[in-house]
Each structure stands twice: as C-alpha cells, then as structure tokens.
Specification:
Layout: E1 2-8, E2 14-23, E3 26-36, H1 39-45, H2 54-78, E4 86-99, E5 106-110, H3 113-120, E6 124-126, H4 130-134, H5 144-151, E7 158-163, E8 166-172, E9 181-187, H6 190-200, H7 209-212, H8 218-225, H9 228-231, H10 245-255, H11 261-283, E10 289-293, H12 300-309, E11 314-317, H13 328-341, H14 349-352, E12 362-364
Parallel strand pairs: 1-4, 4-6, 7-10, 10-11
Antiparallel strand pairs: 1-2, 2-3, 4-5, 6-12, 7-8, 8-9
Helix pairs in contact: 2-3, 6-11, 8-10, 8-11, 11-12
Length: about 375
C-alpha cells in the first residue's frame, strides 16, 4: 500500500517527498526527492513577522499547499504511480509558530491540505501536532514513534539524532529495557543557516567550511548555553520562536565584545554540538550508538565535533541501517498517515508529555479545488 510523506523543515529550503510502501511491519522506500521552494516563498517563510500577519500567513498557506501538491504529482509521475495506487499523503506542513509553553499552548503548521488533496485526488492527512497539544503535550517531536518502530534494537541502547533546523533525540533503550523518550535538544541548523544567509547570502554553510575559518568565542558560548531552555526538564520542544537572530543579537550585546562573522558561525556550530552532547550525556549516558539523520549530517565539521565530544559512543548514519538520512522525517509522516487511517494513537506521552495517547492528524478527502 503506497503512501507519500511530505516535510518542510525549519530552514524552509525545500519540500522533502518520499514514496513508500507500508505493509504490516515493513516499510520500503520507492523514491525520495527534494523539491526546492520558490525564492520568494523562502523569503516570506523566513520573515520573523510572518506569524503576526494573518494576510501573509493565509496567502502562504494556500501557496505552500499548492507547492506540496505539485511535489506529489511530480513524484508520482516520475515513478509511474497513479493517484489510485496511493492510499494517503501525510503532510507535516511548514511550522510558522510553536509555543507549547504559552497560555494557551499553541502550534501552527501551514500548507493547506485541501489544496493537496484537491490537486492530487488523494486522501491527505495533516495537522498532526495540535491533537497532542490539546492533550497537554508539546506537540513535538513526533518522529520518535516512527524511530522506535523502525530503529529500536533488541540488544543495544540507541539514540536517533535528527539534526534539522532544530535538533532532537529519540532515546531507544534495548527492547524491554525501558520506555522510549525524546525531546528537542535546541538549535540544529537554524541559527547557523540564518547567520550564513545574513552574512554571505547563502542558504547554508557547505560542510561547515565557513565555520572552520573561525574560532569558538568562550564568553559567547557560555552565555548561549546558560539559556534556560537547555537546563529545563523534558518533555520539551522548541523552534525559531525561541532561537533566532534576535536571540543571538541580545547575547552579543551582553558581552560587549566585537566578533568576526566567522567566529560567530563557529560558536553557533559549537552551540549545536555542545547542547546535543549535554542532552545525551545527561539523559542517556549508557547509549551504545547514535543513528544520525537530517540535514546536519552533511556538515562535516559538526559531525566531527560531535564525535570528538562523544568519543565513547559510535556515531553512524541511518543509512547504515538502510534509511536515507535526508528522508527520515518525510518517512515519519507517511507512517503517521498510515497510523491515522488505521485509527492508531501515534504520539508517545513519554516524549511529548501528553496526558494520554491520542490519534494524530486530520483527514482531508479529495475535493474539487486545485484544478
């Protein structure tokens, strides 16, 4: 039974689209592709005032929905798969606000699923996070349930480390040895990407080469790691509402020092590596191996730094277990769509802090819109 998973991460650089066959306890990836977002949409999504503008948000909601729909149609065409062969699309959407600690707690993902289902003529499952929030949870991370299904070992203690815009860990004790836990550790690529976009007008720091030309500024990294998020107990989740260039500016102003752009980039990389390391050593010191996925796996300098900080733990890619590290998040939402259609609760209260397991996602049947 074919499913399509769609994901657009915090960095807002592309749509991840995965075509998978889920049958019982097996999942086969037929294809995975990335479809770049238009430059003007990227610019709008990176606008820090987006969430405060109903007009901008609703316009982007429709435009993104159409982009998601076009990505699905392109993916099916190249694989000679018809809409009738696909049971459902699972679309995470684009997070523009994530405030689970606010009063009231709230989170918002855009990319109108009515557009997706209308264009593709395929049942679409979306809005996965708010059911967990309504049950008292963080609404994130949601991939740990998939990680446990796909990567848990009967004998070894594993962590799945996803380094997207935000970094998160899924702690997978050996089967039967304890419950699955996980949380957002803090910034992944989001601050590094934002800084290189501002300074060099590039989408990201290729393999960490720019950061490699700088040095870690100890006064600045100390202030960064003193942020209350890192010492807060889990369950917890975060996003660009907490970690952004305004946050960075407030810290550089506090030190009163002058920093080169390269030094700031290197210090931001150190923040990602150190916050991930601290979380693992505090919550899962008995970890045998780390399976890494997400865009951060391509930052060679970051991966080298992580291995240096965690010398006793083997760090691998999910590719070593047959799963493209770039595709894991999209696969997660294809799987979550399948869970929704089977009416199976798919949040993990031990991860999100929800009061109970809940069924995630709303179902959008094909309509007449979208052309």
């Amino acid at each position: 039974m074919y499913y399509v998973g769609l994901m657009s991460g915090t960095s807002a650089d592309a749509i991840d689209a995965a075509l998978v066959d889920i049958s019982g306890d097996s999942l086969e990836v037929l294809d995975y592709r990335q479809y770049p977002l238009d430059t003007d949409i990227q610019r709008s999504l990176r606008d820090t005032d987006l969430a405060s503008s109903i007009e901008k948000t609703t316009e982007l909601d429709v435009r993104l929905g159409r982009h998601f729909g076009q990505a699905v149609l392109a993916l099916l065409e190249v694989n000679a798969i018809t809409a009738q062969q696909v049971r459902a699309i699972g679309s995470h959407g684009q997070t523009i606000m994530h405030l689970p600690g606010a009063t009231p707690p709230r989170t918002l993902q855009i990319g109108d699923p009515n557009q997706i289902s209308g264009m593709t003529r395929i049942t679409t499952v979306a809005d996965f996070r708010r059911a967990d929030v309504a049950a008292g949870g963080q609404g994130a991370p949601l991939a740990p349930a998939f990680h446990a299904w796909r990567f848990r070992s009967p004998s070894g203690n594993r962590i799945v480390l996803n380094i997207g815009g935000i970094a998160n860990i899924t702690v997978l004790p050996a089967s039967g040895a304890g419950e699955v836990t996980g949380f957002d550790t803090g910034p992944g690529n989001i601050l590094m990407d934002a800084w290189v976009q501002r300074c060099l007008n590039r989408d990201f720091d290729d393999h960490g080469q720019w950061a490699a030309s700088g040095k870690v500024r100890e006064d600045l990294i100390k202030l960064m790691l003193a942020d209350g998020y890192f010492s807060a107990p889990h369950p917890k989740s975060t996003g660009k509402d907490d970690f952004n260039l305004a946050w960075l500016a407030s810290l550089t102003e506090k030190t009163g020092a002058a920093y080169s752009n390269e030094d700031i980039q290197k210090t931001l990389l150190e923040l990602t590596a150190a916050s991930i390391t601290n979380a693992i050593l505090e919550c899962a010191p008995e970890t045998d191996e780390i399976l890494t996925c997400g865009g951060g796996i391509h930052n060679n300098l970051l991966m080298e730094r992580l291995q240096g900080l965690l010398p006793a733990i083997t760090i691998k890619s999910t590719a070593d277990y047959g799963v493209n590290p770039d595709a894991v998040e999209a696969l997660s939402f294809a799987w979550l769509a399948q869970q929704r259609l089977e009416n199976i609760p798919a949040n993990l209260p031990s991860v999100t802090g929800a009061r109970r397991p809940v069924i995630l996602g709303a179902i959008y049947e094909p309509g007449s819109i979208g052309g």
